[in-house]
Amino acid sequence: TEIDWKAYMEEVEGFANGTLDYTQLKGDTGPLVYPAGFVYIFLGLYYATGRGTDIRLAQYLFAGLYLLNLLLVFRIYCRTNKVPPYVFFFMCCASYRIHSIFVLRLFNDPVAMAILFLAVNLFLEEHWSWGCLLFSLAVSVKMNILLFAPGLLFLLLQRFGLLGCIPKLCICALLQVILGLPFLLVNPVGYLTRSFDLGRQFQFKWTVNWRFLPEEVFQNRAFHAMLLLAHLAGLGLFAVHRWHRSKESILALLKDPAERKHPSPPLTINNILWQAAHVRLLNASAQIIFVLFSSNFLGVCCSRSLHYQFYVWYFHTLPYLLWCTPTAKLAHMPKVLLLGVIELCWNTYPSTVCSSLSLHICHGLVLLQLWYGTAPLPALHPHTPSRRPAAISKKAQ
């Protein structure tokens, strides 16, 4: 359980000793391959735990991070009221692998995901600039957060148009420059190639999702290119047919929101106004979460390799992805069963042909129910007022 923690501490120890050449920061498991935000956060943990020697204290800190992560996730789910309460038991108590990733192995993946969920909470509160800042901070801890980026770009275009979303993107880019500046000044090429290496090869012995393939296929660049094309095609299909809810062309997202077509305003009756506003709030929250979570899930499905710590990339989003579609009473059990099988696949060590195939089948089933169960929502149109509310409104006047 100490292998990765010790490697992290060795990597940041070089920075603590004054090494600013990113190519010289290394640990027992190899060179440092994470962006600069990782270095600063784990440098704080390095000093807080007596230069990394007090592992028990580090575990307590990660236990606190685990509870904070759950709080942020629960707050997100409360905004939609789609997931039945009993599902949260599985999220809290039924995943040995997630507990191991947080408290036993002390990976940087849960740190990045906790910051990401904080950013999502800010998006739900319409604090888009602060949310983009936190999103970029999460990316600086681990690059898997970029799987949410296509969904975030879509949401920014939807709310601000092309010109309006440029300042938000500048926030994301500026933070990356500020965090990486000490390393960029010394060896910019070394920093960029090490911390944002999108072509890095993964070891076949650790793969969870492609065990059923021969190793030569797993390492083949043509296979990687095929996965990238599948990922881009999936994002395009979801963006056009599931994320985009308007009857206008998706190119209308490039316009200023004030220039787009909008439905007629709702009736001027207080209770109807409140109900319409409440429905719009729920729909807006649901759309933000659906776009971000499905964007990430598409990336996970098309990943070149999934290692055991990568489970935390999407574990806390699975309940929403499964229950965001209309669910009959008898349909709850198959969804719970899907969660159980996915958990079993991730708890099978080492992975097998059966476990990796089962994982892909489960992912495929989730994608199918997302595609067929989330037809674009109709625009919110006001209902024709009946005579009775009209009479009530006259009395109220």
Overview of this protein structure:
With 397 residues, the chain is mainly alpha-helical. The protein is 64% helix and 1% strand. The protein has helices at residues 3-16, 36-48, 55-78, 87-93, 96-104, 109-124, 128-141, 149-186, 188-195, 215-218, 221-243, 270-301, 318-323, 332-347, 353-373, 387-396; strands spanning 26-27, 30-31. Helix 2 (36-48) crosses helix 7. InterPro entries: Glycosyltransferase_ALG3.
The main sheet orders its strands as 1-2
Overall structural domain count: 1
Distance between the termini: 71 Å
* Rg (C-alpha, Å): 23 Å
How much β-strand is present in the residues? under 5%
Percent in helix = 55-70%
Biggest sheet overview: 2 strands, antiparallel
Question: What is the general shape?
Answer: globular
Number of helices: 16
- Uncertain segments are 263-278, 377-397
SSE string: HEEHHHHHHHHHHHHHHH
What structural category characterises the helix and strand content?
Answer: mainly alpha
Q: Say how many strands there are.
A: 2
Q: Could you report the average pLDDT, rounded to the nearest whole number?
A: 88
